Amino acid sequence: MPKIIGGSLPEHREHVRARVFDALRGQLYERGFDAVTLASVAAEAELGRTAIYNHFRDKEELLVAFVEHEAARYVALLGAAVDAVDDPVEKLATFAKLQLRTLAEYHLPPGGALASALAPSAYRRIAAHADPIVEKLRAILARGVAEGRFADHDPDIVIPMVTAALGARQVVDVPAEQLDTAISVAVGFILRAVGVKTRDDQV
Asked: Which superkingdom, per the lineage (predicted)?
């Protein structure tokens, strides 16, 4: 019988999943999804080759579970950061900074690559985790419009434009010493796009 990590089977399961996710994270960033195998993840997570199948049927199911785990953690972090400030301009700036910082730190395959690698049902499960992020952005924009801080544009047009800008990897693919400046410029661009006059505009 395999050794139980932690005080119970649920704790054991969470410990194993955390080790597997850590291993997968590294392999995704270093090798890409196509090169990942359950056997390679199991070896790095120090699991038996067959033990990983007790948790995941295949690498597609593993990727979906990993993205769901990462997304839930990120949504909680984003919500806490945005809710910690009251001014809608600061909320949007905080939202944009965190999105860009996360984009710089994480290198999951882009949406198009995931769509081609996964079955449609699996990709829809992953894509659904963007919904709370979009709704958070929608709430920030609505608050800013209501308070007269943002231009009253159709959010169904503005939101995809903002999310596209915040998903542009070229913005953050810069030397580490230039990242803060790149993010600052990008945040200023987002704020101006919704009608906020920044200090640069007032010079």
From this structure: Bacteria
